[in-house]
Amino acid sequence: MDILGKMGGPMNEAQKKLYKKLLKNIEAKDEEDELAQMTAAKETPAEAYARKLAIERKSEEMMRAKAERRLAKKKEKEEEALRVKIERQKKKEYEERKKKQEEDDKKVKEIEIKTHKFFRLNKFGKGIATGVVYFGDSIRVNESWIPHGFGEYKVNGEILYEGDFSRGQMHGNGIYLFSNHDIWRGTFRFDELHGVGMLEKNNAESGEHEEGRECLFHKNRRICFTDELLPGVHIKLTGKSGTGPAHHSPGATILNRLKKPGHFRVKMDIGGVQSLNLAEDAFQIDTSVARVTLLEDYVPRAGEKGAIRDGTYAEKRYNFNEDIAMPTYTDHGENWYSDKPPPVSDNIDAAEEEKKRKKKEWEARLKAKQDAKDEDEKKEELAKGRAEKAAAEAVAKREAEQAAKELADRKENLLKKREAVEAEMLRRENKANEAMKVNAGEGGKK
């Protein structure tokens, strides 16, 4: 009921009951007044009926007008709600744009803060850009800034160094570009290449970088590649260890490589086995001593390969003369046992063909693997589709069975009702026939 209370709010239940009661009294009074008016005017029933129809028609028009006003009010409320919703959406979009703009401005400001350009003064005292730009974290020291944290140096648009800094020095992990365009990806210490990392050689002919090789640097000097530190290679320990004083042993023999980068297990010349971090220790490969083959590489330990005790049936030993006659080379062309240059292939075309063949085999293997994966995915999709179809069919079957059962129950109920109605009709008919017979018998007696 769209009626307001005393203070403009909606009516409570007591007010609604009182309002309904007043309306009933008014309607009863109107009927009494109408009867009194008909009695005084002496209207005919037809005239009274016509007047009543006119009153009802007027009441219907008033109700229609009221309904139209209600619909118009409802439509107005909906339009107002839509307008409020659109305004909220616009406000939300504006706030999102504003927030995004603030974030972009913050990023631009951060970039401006982190970007430092280097200038040199000419003879007139005017700064001229040198093309060197530093972008990254920094700290203030007195009235100047120094790199500290993560950043990069650019020279004429080309990144020269990208990595960690410590109070203006390259210190930590980083990537360095040499003047010959070789790339070092490894560790630095106090502005020097120091530790273990990957060295990518630049191919001047193709302009591309070769696959990186792990190597060791010590104070800007390349010591060796880690794949040169094979078991049996002898090294000279030339300085202090990374964590203490100088080693007592002048040298050591590599036994094997450990999991940590730059860590090796070695046998000291003075005796004893020790783990060394060659990324921190100063050393050099002793080329004057031939590489030895470790005995444990050929003599099985007890329990391995069916051996009852150590050295049961292993007779092979290292032969220096055989290594000199038939040198052994690594994948990179180094020869560990001889000063002879590595052999050059006489048939370069055959090598290229072999390389192409291996590449094709690899691509075919990848393609077969991808095809098998696609086939498995297809089979999974088919199995999933079949399972979904079977589930849908089972649901449809259950629904059909349930519908058939409900239909059978309805038929059975209808048949029972029909039988009951027929029995009732037959009972009434028999009762009526008996009554007629009784009445006919009484009439005959009379």
What would your notes on this structure say?
This protein is of the alpha+beta class and 446 residues long. 46% of the residues lie in helices and 23% in strands. The strands form two sheets. The protein has a nine-stranded antiparallel beta sheet with strand order 1-2-3-4-5-6-7-8-9. A hairpin with a 5-residue loop joins strand 5 (169-177) and strand 6 (183-189). The radius of gyration is 52 Å and the shape is elongated.
How many β-strands, per DSSP? 14
Largest sheet: number of strands, sense, barrel closure:
9 strands, antiparallel
What is the radius of gyration?
Answer: 52 Å
Share in β-strands: 15-25%
| Unreliable residue stretches | 1-5, 305-316
Shape: elongated
Instruction: Provide mean pLDDT, rounded.
Output: 78
Which helices and strands, and how do they pair?
Elements: H1 13-41, H2 45-114, E1 115-121, E2 127-141, E3 144-155, E4 158-166, E5 169-177, E6 183-189, E7 192-200, E8 213-218, E9 221-225, E10 234-237, E11 251-257, E12 263-268, E13 273-277, E14 283-285, H3 320-325, H4 348-445
Labels describing this entry:
9-stranded antiparallel beta sheet, about 450 residues, 5-stranded antiparallel beta sheet, alpha+beta
Task: Summarize it.
Residues 332-398, 426-446 are annotated as: Disordered. With 446 residues, the protein is of the alpha+beta class.
